[in-house]
Design goal:
This protein is an all-alpha fold. It has twelve helices and no strands. Helix 2 crosses helix 3 and helix 2 runs antiparallel to helix 6. The radius of gyration is 18 Å and the shape is elongated.
């Protein structure tokens, strides 16, 4: 089976296995997903989802967040790792959005990556989940599982993204990242993948080698 057919089979089977796969960060407004994404670096989504309700209650609008005191943001996100760095990035991004983008999250990768704390992974997540613009989010789950399956041999996120973009149709790019997260948490866990219970075992190079 070539990589295009393998990729199509992966998406089809995982959609059946995880019909509710979606972004696991809680948000209502695009700027809230931006904030949650910044907090999620080296922190679980579950922990972020415990932090953001108080943060968004305290600062319910982007304008209010842009005018926040840095020390107060630090206090609210303290239970998240690297909280000082993340608090500065949150305040900086909120301020930039208000002053440079009229308070609107821009649907453009380069513009998003100009915001403090936003790299390509977060930018792609925002493009997909806020605007429906095809983009592949290459996080640790995506890179690891895609390598195990045999869709890429690359190690850098950008190179992995390029390989996946070549074998996946754009209409599957957004879903693919969410499916990888669901699969990586439920079955293909990093420490001990459950190949015997995996719906991809007959097409996954790692499972076939085992």
């Amino acid at each position: 089976m070539d990589k295009h057919r393998t990729a199509a089979t992966v998406v089809r089977r995982l959609r059946q296995h995880y019909p509710d796969a979606q972004c696991t960060l809680d948000f209502q407004e695009p700027w809230q997903l931006l904030v949650a994404s910044i907090l999620s670096a080296q922190c679980t989504d579950a922990r972020v989802n415990l932090i953001t309700p108080d943060l968004f209650s305290r600062y319910p609008t982007l304008n209010s967040l842009a005018q926040a005191d840095l020390a107060d943001i630090e206090r609210l996100v303290r239970s998240c790792g690297l909280f000082r760095t993340k608090a500065r990035a949150i305040l900086g991004s909120a301020t930039r959005l208000v002053t440079d983008f009229n308070g609107i999250l821009p649907p453009d990768r380069e513009a998003l990556m100009s915001l403090p704390g936003v790299g390509r992974k977060i930018a792609n997540l925002l493009l997909g989940d806020c605007f429906g613009i095809p983009a592949i989010v290459v996080d640790t789950h995506c890179a690891r599982i895609s390598t195990l399956i045999g869709l890429t041999r690359q190690t850098s996120p950008l190179a992995v993204e390029k390989d996946l973009a070549e074998v996946l149709p754009p209409e599957d790019w957004i879903a693919y990242g969410h499916l990888m997260v669901s699969h990586g948490r439920a079955i293909c866990v990093a420490r001990k993948p459950d190949c015997s219970g995996c719906p991809l075992q007959d097409i996954c190079q790692y499972a076939l080698r085992r």
